[in-house]
Design goal:
- By secondary structure, the chain is α/β, with parallel strands linked by helices.
- It folds into two domains: 207 residues, NAD(P)-binding Rossmann-like Domain (Rossmann fold, 3-Layer(aba) Sandwich), CATH 3.40.50; 33 residues, no CATH class.
- Helices cover 41% and strands 14% of the residues.
- It is built from eight helices and seven strands; from the N terminus they run E-H-E-H-E-H-E-H-E-H-E-H-H-H-E.
- It has a seven-stranded parallel β-sheet, sandwiched between helices.
- Strand 4, helix 4 and strand 5 form a beta-alpha-beta unit.
- Helix 3 runs parallel beside helix 4.
- The model has no long low-confidence stretch (mean pLDDT 95).
- Bound molecules: nicotinamide-adenine-dinucleotide.
- Nicotinamide-adenine-dinucleotide binds next to helix 6.
Length: 273
């Protein structure tokens, strides 16, 4: 490995959590966790390219985070399409001329028992949650390897990639298990280029889709599903989107310069049980 791609221990900045001068590309930026993570990266100094299937929402989020000296650009992207993912990196190049950090939160899934699951439901979940991660990884590498300055890729996994949830989460869990393997493989493949790859595995995190699930009578009386979920989390509460920010900032920058191939649970102890 050349000296240019080897990351120095803890980086060169006095504050290893400072992301000033770094450009972060965030996929699935407009979701319940993505918007909060994007704001956190921005607060720590990163310039942002925010990509989401919902292009107007991506542009709106970017406008809200573009208070000088912070800069953010919002673009539409469908992670099921290779060209669409590549275009985001071209947009990043046009706006900022480089990419240092890639965060993937793109997600779509339908809860359904495996025994009843049509191929189309399985395929859509896999295509967004795992296929998207693969396309993002490939496109990121094709930009970041030639750049020669290392970088950090952060994939949002889940506790479902490690433990069975047992509530129609089969396809999602298969995708996240595969994603954990992708994280390990790409971490090893790209280590010689100084590109680190890690994951974050949240437990149930309070977002609008989760709140909607709690209100769905299919999942029991009001409060029943939420109480059951919290009972499995030793810290005694659901995660909040803000809980993901510290982990993401840590993995994005020099603070984690010796961490790669790791999936960090942000789960209140769920996986420790
Ligand atoms: N919220 C939770 O309880 C929870 C728990 C564990 C893991 N996670 C993981 O965290 C990540 C973010 O979850 P979230 O709760 O913010 O989800 P969300 O549904 O709120 O957001 C997902 C975002 O992905 C976008 N998206 C969907 N399909 C896309 C596509 N084809 N191309 C591009 N973008 C697309 C959506 O528009 C949305 O903005 C996901 O990887 C999820 O698996 C979430």
């Amino acid at each position: 490995m050349s000296e240019t791609t080897r990351q120095s221990p803890g980086g060169t900045s006095p504050n290893p959590f400072d992301l000033s001068g770094k450009v972060a590309v965030v996929f699935g930026a407009c979701g319940g966790i993505g918007g909060t993570v994007a704001a956190g990266l921005s607060e720590h100094g990163a310039s942002l390219v925010l990509a989401d299937l919902e292009a107007p929402a991506a542009r709106e989020l970017a406008a809200s985070l573009s208070t000088p000296p912070r800069q953010a650009v919002g673009v539409g992207c469908d992670v099921r399409m290779a060209d669409s993912v590549v275009q985001v990196f071209k947009d990043a190049d046009a706006a900022f001329g480089r990419v240092d950090v890639v965060v993937n939160l793109a997600f779509a899934s339908v809860l359904m028992p495996v025994a009843e699951m049509p191929d189309a439901v399985f395929q859509r979940t896999l295509d967004v949650c795992l296929g998207g991660a693969f396309r993002i990884s490939r496109a990121a590498a094709q930009v970041m390897i030639p750049q020669g300055s290392g970088g950090s890729v952060i994939q949002f996994s889940s506790i479902a990639g490690f433990a069975a949830m047992g509530r129609g989460t089969g396809a999602y869990a298969m995708a996240k298990g595969g994603l954990n393997a992708l994280i390990r493989e790409t971490a090893v493949e790209w280590a010689s280029h100084g590109i680190r790859v890690n994951g974050i595995a949240p437990c149930q995190t309070r977002t609008a889709p989760l709140e909607a699930l709690f209100k769905n009578p299919k999942h029991g009386a009001p409060g029943e599903l939420e109480t059951a979920m919290i009972a499995r989390i030793p810290l005694g509460r659901l995660a909040e989107p803000q809980d993901m920010v510290g982990a993401c900032v840590f993995l994005a920058g020099d603070a984690s310069s010796m961490v790669t191939g790791h999936v960090l649970p942000v789960d209140g102890g769920f996986l420790a049980k």
